[in-house]
Amino acid sequence: MRSTRRTRPAGQPPGRRRYSHYNRAVKNLGILLSGRGSNFAAIADSIGAGRISNARIAVVISNRNDAPGLEVARQLGLNALAIPSRGKPREEHDREVVAALRDHKVDLVCLAGYMRLLSPWFVQQFPAKVLNIHPSLLPAFPGLEAQQQAFAYGVKVSGCTVHLVDEELDHGAIIVQKTVAVLDSDDERTLAARILEQEHIAYTEAINIVLDGKFEIAGRRVVKGQGAIVKGEGSEVRLQK
Ligand code: GRF
Description:
The structure is a single chain. This protein is of the alpha/beta class. It has one domain (25-209): Rossmann fold (3-Layer(aba) Sandwich), CATH 3.40.50.170. It has six helices and twelve strands. The strands form two sheets. It has a seven-stranded mixed β-sheet with strand order 4-3-2-5-6-7-8, sandwiched between helices. Strands 1-12-11-9-10 form a five-stranded mixed β-sheet. Helix 1 crosses helix 6 and helix 5 crosses helix 6. The longest helix has 25 residues, at 188-212. The site of 5-O-phosphono-beta-D-ribofuranosylamine (GRF) has 14 residues, from helix 1, strand 6 and helix 6.
């Protein structure tokens, strides 16, 4: 990822930072996964079908050598890398992953079943440029086995969330949510399967929203706007298209 800090244009208040991540016509996605990779495959399918029109998958990285998603990536002819995390301090591993993402000029990082917390250092390398998908309606049921948590709790509606990654677990600003009704006839498996169908739709929508860049983030709220303005406490970040 190249981010070019510019001098402040006339009329722009101090404290606002501009980035130019989105200037290239085709953006490079970096996928991080640890498992079967169905969300990754759905993203690849959306790119192939033109539902995501301005992106390519530059690299797929797994922290596990044996992740089935890596083999799917190889079969699709994509760059697929295993960077094992076992036994490594978190940031040391993250530095290897970020180096590989930079080698492949990744603009947007998509976590797709990546079963490893990112270090604050990693998150800072890609400001507002890391997405995650979680199989519940956050902030309900963060963490592992979210579908099972929701089912056991007895909710009548669950779903999935695509959100920006910040330094807390399953916490960043929400880009897209999809709801799924919990049926009396459901068990954990059938509920998880219907949520997964919605995950595959939601991730494509979220990538398009982020790559289009026509949104603003005010506090925690992601809303339509002219450009991606991140309004934090006392500061503002505009992500140019
Ligand atoms: C998905 O349920 C996703 O929401 C969660 O991990 C699972 C990954 O599934 N973060 P897959 O590997 O994409 O099939």
